[in-house]
Structure formats: structure tokens, C-alpha cells
Specification:
The chain is mainly alpha-helical. 82% of the residues lie in helices and 0% in strands. It has helices at 2-31, 38-47, 49-59, 68-95.
Length: 96
């Protein structure tokens, strides 16, 4: 049972990490401190796309910054395609 939960747990942790990085960068931006590199934020989004999007939208952080917003949209699009592909692969096994 734990083995089945491990991927879901890792995904939750990746999303939490991505959101936390966006929140931390927003706090640093407000304080005028040293910022988290965009490359780091995008890498976190690659593993935790939902957390990154929630961080961007809820915190209103980097919503107009280009090309960052475009890269984030591309990453989220890839997440959606991966979920659809996984659903299409799993659904036949559930029906049979």
C-alpha cells in the first residue's frame, strides 16, 4: 500500500516545494532581497506544476513577466498532456 502511495506523496511534496519557492521569491521581492533565479522556479514547476501555478496566481507573482509566464504555461500544458496520456493508458486496464 505504501508503494502505491509513494508517487502521490512525491507529487504532493513537489507541488508544495514549488508553491513555497514562489512564496519565498515573492517575499524576497517585496523586501528587496536577493531573488530566487527564474531557472530554479521553472525547474520546480517542471516537477510541481500545480503548486507553481497556484503560487503564481494566488500570490500574483510573475504573472506578466515574459518569457517566464510563457515557459510556465508550456510546462503546465505538458503536465496536462501527461495526465491525459496516463488516463488513456490506465482507463482500458480499469474497464477490462
Amino acid at each position: 500500500m505504501i508503494n502505491g502511495l509513494l508517487p502521490a506523496l512525491l507529487l504532493c511534496l513537489a507541488n508544495l516545494l514549488a508553491f513555497s519557492l514562489f512564496a519565498n521569491d515573492k517575499a524576497r521581492a517585496r523586501a528587496g532581497g536577493r531573488r530566487i533565479p527564474e531557472r530554479t522556479l521553472l525547474l520546480a514547476a517542471l516537477f510541481g506544476g500545480l503548486g507553481a501555478v497556484l503560487g503564481q496566481r494566488l500570490l500574483r507573482h510573475k504573472t506578466r513577466k515574459q518569457p517566464f509566464a510563457a515557459w510556465l504555461s508550456l510546462i503546465v500544458g505538458l503536465h496536462v498532456l501527461a495526465l491525459l496520456a496516463a488516463a488513456l493508458l490506465i482507463a482500458p486496464a480499469l474497464i477490462a
